[in-house]
């Protein structure tokens, strides 16, 4: 008998989810599975917003950010009675396999769901924060980094026209990955992330000297998870360095946009590995991308191991730059 497989997106959406949905429908059909979409994340599981998907549903979406089937943060799914309803809804449609695109919170929910109801699943790391343990890459990160790069490059144009400091705040929740990689690839003067201790006073002499030497502007990339508000960093530039400053919170711009080639390809591969895992009776895994390539990891290890930012990257943040 043909088996039914469903997919849902949960937590913050990422560019790459739509290419993943396209591959999901195509590869499911190729493997004689009937694909279903669950709309609006775990909310859709609870509300029985689950529908059969076809080629028509995924035509013309590969170039679009966001997710055609919606995402959500579901308070109800945190409660056992709603997870029970979710299971009843899947059973009624004879859905026996589930793919979840989401972040660590979504995987915690999935783990709980599995422990209670034993539904076969595979998780695909999808969050711009890149903060899931066990995987070096989460879907959507490359597009987010490119959006940030574009934004910083544009801000640099105006920064260089005035004598100003620009404090640019990136997303990332408690993780500094987006800020750190953006700092290294956009040539900013200062990067502040939650993972490393810093003392702004240590930059004071250096920055003042740079102004003396002719520097006209500064770019500081700060992660949203640091202890200070970005406005406080801007005030520090004004009061201690003596340069007019502005704050740019990039916000949800970082979550949108046309998915990059890398995210389209990663979406294709992640989904292929996810469906292969389910067909191979790997019932409770997350597809992780590591330095050795794609690997299946038990969800228990993924959700119960704290995420660590790549140590090599952290070392770069502290490497001294020549004073101009
Ligand atoms: N312990 C849990 N039990 C049940 N459900 C959970 C649990 N933790 C999280 N969830 C579900 O997962 C959803 C998404 O989690 P969360 O808001 O943390 O986003 P995320 O998956 O980490 O993605 P992002 O990184 O984009 O924020 C929650 O709204 C909730 O429905
Ligand atoms: O869109 P929301 O629910 O405000 O969530 C914002 C959060 O989601 C993320 O964008 C991750 O998806 C975080 O970087 C950010 O802190």
**What topology, given as strand order, has the largest sheet?**
3-2-1-4-5-10-11
Order of helices and strands: EHEHEHEHEHEHEHEHEHEEHH
Quickly give the CATH architecture of the largest domain: 3-Layer(aba) Sandwich
Average of per-residue pLDDT values: 96
Q: Structural class, judged by helices and strands?
A: alpha/beta
Ligand identities:
adenosine-5'-triphosphate, 6-O-phosphono-beta-D-fructofuranose
Principal-axes shape call: elongated
First-residue to last-residue Cα separation: 70 Å
Keywords:
324 residues; alpha/beta; Rossmann fold; seven-stranded mixed beta sheet; four-stranded parallel beta sheet; elongated; binds adenosine-5'-triphosphate; binds 6-O-phosphono-beta-D-fructofuranose
Q: Please, could you describe this protein's structure?
A:
- The mean pLDDT is 96.
- It is built from eleven helices and eleven strands.
- It has a seven-stranded mixed sheet with strand order 3-2-1-4-5-10-11, sandwiched between helices.
- It starts with a strand and ends in a 6-residue tail after the last helix.
- By secondary structure, the protein is an alpha/beta fold.
- The chain folds into two domains: 3-140 and 259-306, Rossmann fold, CATH 3.40.50; 142-255, Phosphofructokinase domain (Rossmann fold), CATH 3.40.50.460.
- Helix 1 runs parallel beside helix 9 (261-279), helix 5 crosses helix 6 (177-186) and helix 6 (177-186) packs across helix 11.
- Adenosine-5'-triphosphate (ATP) binds next to helix 4.
- Keywords: Allosteric enzyme, ATP-binding, Cytoplasm, Glycolysis, Kinase, Magnesium, Metal-binding, Nucleotide-binding, Transferase.
């Amino acid at each position: 008998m043909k088996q039914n497989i469903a997919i849902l997106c949960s937590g913050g959406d990422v560019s790459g989810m739509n290419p993943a949905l396209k591959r999901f429908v195509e590869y499911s059909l190729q493997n004689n599975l009937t694909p279903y979409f669950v709309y609006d994340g775990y909310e859709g599981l609870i509300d029985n917003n689950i529908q059969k998907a076809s080629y028509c549903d995924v035509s013309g979406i590969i170039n679009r950010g966001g997710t055609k089937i919606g995402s959500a943060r579901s308070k109800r799914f945190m409660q056992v009675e709603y997870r029970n309803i979710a299971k009843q809804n899947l059973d009624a449609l004879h859905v026996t396999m589930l793919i979840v695109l989401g972040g660590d919170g979504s995987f915690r929910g999935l783990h709980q769901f599995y422990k209670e109801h034993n539904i076969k699943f595979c998780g695909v790391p999808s969050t711009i924060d890149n903060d899931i343990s066990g995987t070096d890459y989460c879907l959507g990160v490359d597009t987010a980094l490119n959006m940030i790069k574009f934004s910083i490059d544009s801000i640099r144009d105006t920064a260089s026209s005035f004598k100003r400091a620009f404090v640019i705040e990136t997303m990332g929740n408690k993780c500094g990955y987006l800020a750190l990689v953006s700092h290294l690839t956009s040539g900013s003067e200062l990067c502040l992330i939650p993972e490393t201790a810093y003392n702004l006073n240590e930059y004071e002499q250096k920055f003042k000297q740079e102004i003396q030497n002719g520097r006209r502007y500064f770019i500081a990339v700060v992660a949203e998870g640091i202890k200070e508000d970005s406005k406080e960093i801007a005030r520090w530039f004004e009061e201690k360095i003596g340069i007019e400053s502005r704050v740019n919170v990039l916000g949800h711009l970082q979550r949108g946009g046309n998915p990059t080639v890398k995210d389209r390809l990663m979406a294709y591969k992640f989904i292929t590995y996810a469906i292969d895992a389910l067909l191979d009776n790997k019932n409770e895994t997350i597809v992780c991308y590591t330095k050795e390539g794609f690997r299946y990891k038990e969800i228990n290890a993924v959700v119960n191991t704290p995420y660590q930012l790549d140590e090599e990257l952290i070392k770069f943040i502290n490497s001294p730059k020549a004073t101009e």
